[in-house]
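Q&A FORM
Asked by: J.P.
Topic: structure of NUDIX hydrolase

PROVIDED:
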Amino acid sequence: MPVERPRRPAARLLVLDPDGSVFLQLHHDAEVGPHWVLPGGGLEPGEAPLAGALRETVEETGWTDVVTGPALWRWEHDYHRGDVGLVRQHEVIYLASAPHRDPIGDLTASFAADGILTCRWFTPKELAEVTEVLWPPQLVSLLEDLRRDGPPAEPIDLGYVPNPQEPGSDG
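REPLIED BY: S.T.
REPLY: Here is the structure written out as tokens.
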């Protein structure tokens, strides 16, 4: 029987550099293990998704000059949030661009608070070869679609994606 989990609204940025590489952060979750995630995170009460994605990205990268675009995708997934426990996260992912660079400033406390182990840029070829879980799991094919077709007119609803370890999943 599925476990009922509290809903957690969140938003993230798909940050691409001028050459099409994507910026990701490596997190570790008790349910999923190591997984690469786009910058962003939970929304504060009353916060608009894009504003929350920008705030979280500044907190996690130090970048204040990220240029944002349209909402691309919506999806939901479960995970174990250290300060809350089990949650069902509902995410909106926005297109964004930034120069290819490392995070700016001392982000040690932010990384520790958010469980970020490391971060890096991935070319499309490198991303296709990642062995850890990607969030969203369809990220490689979604990026291929984005490069081929451009941003969708409306955000694409990816629906609920079970964790690989959950019964009935493909993992």
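FOLLOW-UP: Residues 7-160 form a domain with the Nucleoside Triphosphate Pyrophosphohydrolase fold (CATH 3.90.79.10).
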